[in-house]
Design a protein that fits this description.
With 373 residues, the chain is α+β, with helices and mostly antiparallel strands. 42% of the residues lie in helices and 24% in strands.
C-alpha cells in the first residue's frame, strides 16, 4: 500500500504532500475542488497516466510544463519500502522510476501497484463496447497469469502480420499459412488463460452480488471467446478464411472476445436500474480485486470516485464493508464528510481529508496524519 504521496502540478493540485496514509482514505469536498485529481495522481503511479480521457496537457496544471507524482509503497508490515515516481510533460515525454532506478516498461509499474478504478466510466463494463470488457478481462488475467502478457504481445504481432497479408492484392498463401498457424496457437493459449481466470471470477462475482443485491438472484456472467465455441481457433480460422480474404482482416479470435452480464436471461445494461447497474459494476471490480490479492500479488489499490452517487446509504455501507474485507487500500471521494465516514465496519478507522481549491488538509481527529498542500 502507499504510505506517502507527493503531487506536483496535477490539474489544480500544484503541491500536495500526504504522509501516513491509512488503509481507507476518504477525500471530501465540493465538486471541482480537486478530489478526483488526487485519484488521478495515484493512478499515475500505477499506470503512468490518468484514467480520464484526453491529452496529457490537460492533466498538467495550466501554465506548467510537466507534472510529477511521487509515492512510497510498502509490503510486509512496512519492512519493504519502494519509492515510485512518474513524471509527464506536456510534450508527451514520460519518465518512470521504481526503487530509484529508471524503467521503460509500464508493466513493471503495474505489477508494483495494481489498481482498480470505480467511477462513472466504469458503467462501460455494462453499457459500453466489448473493448471495455476485454480490457477488464485482460487486466485480471495479467495479474494472475504470469505468461499472459508475453503471449498477448505474441498474438498481437501475429494478428498484425496476418492482416497485412490479407490486405495485399496478391496473397502469398504459404506465408499466410505460417502466420495463421502461429496466430491459432497463440489464440488458443490466450483463451485457456482467460477461461481459467473466468472460472474463478464468475463464482466470486456471484458470491459478492448475493451480498450487495440479494434480490438480483438471476444474475449470470458469461464469457464468449471470440469464435464458434465448438471449434478450435485453427478450425475457426480455416472456416472464416474466405471472408477474411474478401474483407482484408481477421474477423474472429481473442480480439473479439467479450463477457456479458445478464439478468433473467436479458442484458443487465437494458433491464437494470442505474443503481442496480452500479452495484453490478462494484461486484465485478470487487471480485477482480479479490483474485488479484492472491499469493503472487499484494492487495490492489482501489480508486473510488463518488461512491454515494446512484446508491443509497445501505448499499454504500455494503460496498464499503466488502472493500474493507479485501484488506485493500482505498482512496475514495465524496462531497460531504458524513456521506462515507460512518460506512466502514469496526475496527476500521478511515483517514479523512478535506479538499478545497486544490489544497488537501487532514480533517480533525487524525493528529497522526501530516498533510501539507
Amino acid at each position: 500500500m502507499l504510505t506517502q504521496l507527493q503531487i506536483h502540478n496535477v490539474r489544480n493540485l500544484e503541491q500536495v504532500t500526504l504522509q501516513g496514509l491509512a488503509r481507507i482514505n476518504i477525500f471530501f469536498g465540493a465538486n471541482g475542488s480537486g478530489k478526483t485529481s488526487v485519484l488521478e495522481a495515484v493512478h499515475m503511479l500505477g499506470m503512468a497516466k490518468s484514467f480520464r480521457p484526453g491529452a496529457t496537457r490537460t492533466l498538467v496544471t495550466h501554465g506548467k510544463s510537466d507534472c510529477t507524482v511521487y509515492g512510497v509503497t510498502s509490503e510486509g508490515s512496512f519492512r519493504s519500502r519502494v519509492p515510485v515516481a512518474v513524471r509527464r510533460s506536456t510534450t508527451g515525454d514520460v519518465q518512470i522510476k521504481l526503487g530509484g532506478q529508471a524503467v521503460r516498461s509500464v508493466s513493471e509499474l503495474v505489477e508494483q501497484l495494481p489498481l482498480q478504478v470505480l467511477n462513472a466510466a466504469s458503467f462501460e463494463l455494462l453499457t459500453g463496447s466489448p473493448a471495455a470488457r476485454r480490457q477488464f478481462l485482460n487486466w485480471g488475467v495479467f495479474h494472475v497469469e504470469q505468461r499472459f502478457f508475453v503471449e498477448w504481445q505474441r498474438f498481437q504481432r501475429c494478428l498484425k502480420q496476418r492482416n497485412k497479408l490479407l490486405r495485399h492484392g496478391k496473397l502469398d498463401r504459404s506465408e499466410l499459412t505460417v502466420w495463421t498457424r502461429e496466430l491459432a496457437d497463440s489464440g488458443d493459449r490466450i483463451h485457456e488463460f482467460r477461461l481459467r481466470y473466468f472460472e474463478l471470477l464468475a463464482p466470486s462475482f456471484r458470491a459478492i452480488m448475493n451480498r450487495l443485491a440479494p434480490s438480483l438472484q438471476a444474475l449470470e456472467l458469461r464469457y464468449r471467446k471470440g469464435w464458434e465455441k465448438s471449434l478450435s481457433y485453427s478450425e475457426a480460422l480455416e472456416a472464416g478464411l474466405p471472408a477474411d480474404i474478401e474483407q482484408g482482416y481477421t474477423h474472429i479470435g481473442p480480439q473479439r472476445a467479450d463477457i456479458k452480464v445478464t439478468a433473467n436471461g436479458y442484458s443487465a445494461a437494458e433491464t437494470l436500474s442505474r443503481g442496480q447497474q452500479k452495484l453490478v459494476v462494484c461486484g465485478l471490480k470487487l471480485a477482480q480485486g479479490g483474485l488479484i490479492a492472491g499469493p503472487r500479488q499484494g492487495a490492489c489499490v482501489y480508486l473510488v470516485d463518488d461512491l454515494p452517487a446512484e446508491l443509497d446509504q445501505r448499499h454504500c455501507a455494503l460496498v464499503c464493508e466488502a472493500l474493507a474485507e479485501l484488506e485493500s487500500q482505498v482512496f475514495i471521494t465524496c462531497v460531504a464528510r458524513s456521506d462515507l465516514e460512518e460506512m466502514w465496519p469496526a475496527p476500521v478507522q478511515p483517514a479523512m481529508f478535506h479538499v478545497e481549491h486544490g489544497t488537501v488538509s487532514a480533517a480533525a481527529g487524525r493528529e497522526d496524519t501530516a498533510v501539507s498542500g
